[in-house]
């Protein structure tokens, strides 16, 4: 291309679909220093803060979640129509040369607008099951970058598929990207094994409500473990109270900015099996208990958990199976008590890591733009 390209990375709705975009953006700017990169999300304050905090532009593309009742349907249609119009305007006014979809609320309207405008787009699918918008747009994409080879069979046969692996946030690439088989020593260590509970920025209600009771049930098996629980916005006080009532000493926080640094001093994780989360656990070589979100109707969490469990041995705890606290305690007990079991899972997690994933996505972008640049994979020093 004669001029410096302007690339729009569309995601949003949760930071899990923003973080991979930041890693890809960084790789793009290493290759194309004069390029402009904009991240599009659904306008949440934490998204704007995160994106602008690393020096990138942020744009808002409105979109609504799928309606849960007939009364929600008109608002859903209106807001998504508005999102398509905003995306169309954004592509034209900002002279966007290429769109990268990383999943999330802003991705669907933006890809549809790019398709009707004749602007090339690349799809990054982090999940083992492709999102419906990914399936619908795959055959016309410049490239479809997949985290898992199993996903290809669920896409149209003429889709331009590339297996890049899953992309984590920049901090995990920096801290664990030198050698996925070698965990760096922790920056700090309390001398106690650490259990990290990731409830997400928006909060995982069932985990916040059930983990304190699960730790109480574990009794001696959990003795000596330090618990760090990310409860999400609005859940800090309530979750602290539940741990206090259970007699469990836990550090509860709303959000963890430097999660990669904490991961270096963590021994076990309880989390949702989102695609980006699993990518980061693999980079860090961390064993985990996976708890799919039963509120999701698309089956993505369940599919991700099954694939991760098959490859690495991570146990799965299903929310609908009776008392979640009892199920969590049963899933955690052997991992808390047996270091060898944790290490076996950790080794298989490290083997599944793809620290070059964001670089491979950036290669696909450079090729689609016909931008002459040598492939570059940055590593932490």
TrEMBL record:
Any one Gene Ontology BP term: carbohydrate metabolic process
Classification via Gene3D superfamilies: Glycogen Phosphorylase B (3.40.50.2000)
EC assignment: 2.4.1.227
Domain of life: Bacteria
Molecular function GO terms recorded: hexosyltransferase activity
Record-linked InterPro entries: Glyco_trans_28_C (IPR007235), GlycoTrans_28_N (IPR004276)
Domain Glycosyltransferase family 28 N-terminal: 7-141
Record domain Glycosyl transferase family 28 C-terminal: where: 195-320
Keywords (A to Z) from UniProt: Glycosyltransferase, Transferase
EC main group: transferase
PANTHER family: GLYCOSYLTRANSFERASE, UDP-N-ACETYLGLUCOSAMINE--N-ACETYLMURAMYL-(PENTAPEPTIDE) PYROPHOSPHORYL-UNDECAPRENOL N-ACETYLGLUCOSAMINE TRANSFERASE 1
Protein name stated in the entry: UDP-N-acetylglucosamine--N-acetylmuramyl-(Pentapeptide) pyrophosphoryl-undecaprenol N-acetylglucosamine transferase MurG
């Amino acid at each position: 291309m004669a001029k410096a390209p302007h690339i729009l990375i569309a995601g949003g709705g949760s930071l899990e679909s923003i973080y991979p975009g930041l890693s890809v953006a960084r790789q793009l700017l290493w290759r194309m220093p004069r390029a402009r990169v904009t991240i599009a999300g659904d306008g949440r304050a934490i998204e704007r803060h995160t994106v602008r905090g690393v020096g990138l532009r942020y744009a808002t593309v409105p979109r609504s979640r799928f309606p849960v009742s007939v009364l929600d349907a008109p608002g859903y249609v209106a807001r998504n129509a508005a999102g398509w119009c905003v995306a169309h305007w954004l592509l034209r006014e900002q002279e966007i040369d290429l769109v990268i979809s990383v999943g999330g609320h802003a991705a669907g309207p933006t890809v549809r607008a790019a398709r009707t405008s004749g602007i090339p787009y690349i799809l990054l699918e982090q999940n083992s099951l492709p999102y419906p918008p990914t399936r619908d747009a795959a055959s016309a994409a410049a490239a479809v970058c997949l985290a898992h080879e199993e996903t290809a069979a669920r896409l149209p046969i003429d889709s331009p598929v590339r297996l890049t692996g899953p992309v984590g946030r920049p901090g995990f690439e920096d801290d664990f990207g030198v050698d996925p088989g070698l965990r760096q020593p922790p920056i700090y260590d309390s001398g106690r094994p650490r259990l990290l509970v990731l409830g997400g920025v928006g909060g995982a209600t069932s985990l916040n409500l059930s983990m304190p009771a699960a730790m109480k049930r574990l009794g001696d098996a959990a003795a000596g473990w330090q618990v760090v629980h990310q409860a999400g916005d609005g859940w800090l006080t309530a979750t602290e109270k539940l741990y206090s009532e259970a007699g469990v000493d836990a550090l509860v926080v709303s959000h963890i900015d430097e999660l990669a640094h904490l991961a270096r001093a963590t021994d076990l994780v309880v989390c949702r099996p989102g695609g980006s989360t699993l990518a980061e656990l693999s980079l860090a070589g961390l064993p985990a208990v996976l708890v799919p979100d039963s509120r999701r109707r698309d089956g993505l969490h369940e599919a991700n958990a099954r694939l991760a469990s098959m490859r690495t041995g991570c146990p799965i705890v299903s929310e609908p199976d009776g008392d979640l606290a009892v199920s969590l305690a049963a899933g955690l007990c052997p991992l808390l008590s047996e270091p060898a079991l944790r290490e076996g899972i950790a080794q298989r997690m490290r083997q599944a890591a793809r620290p070059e994933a964001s670089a491979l996505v950036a290669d696909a972008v450079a090729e689609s733009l016909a931008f002459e640049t040598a492939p570059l994979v940055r590593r932490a020093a």
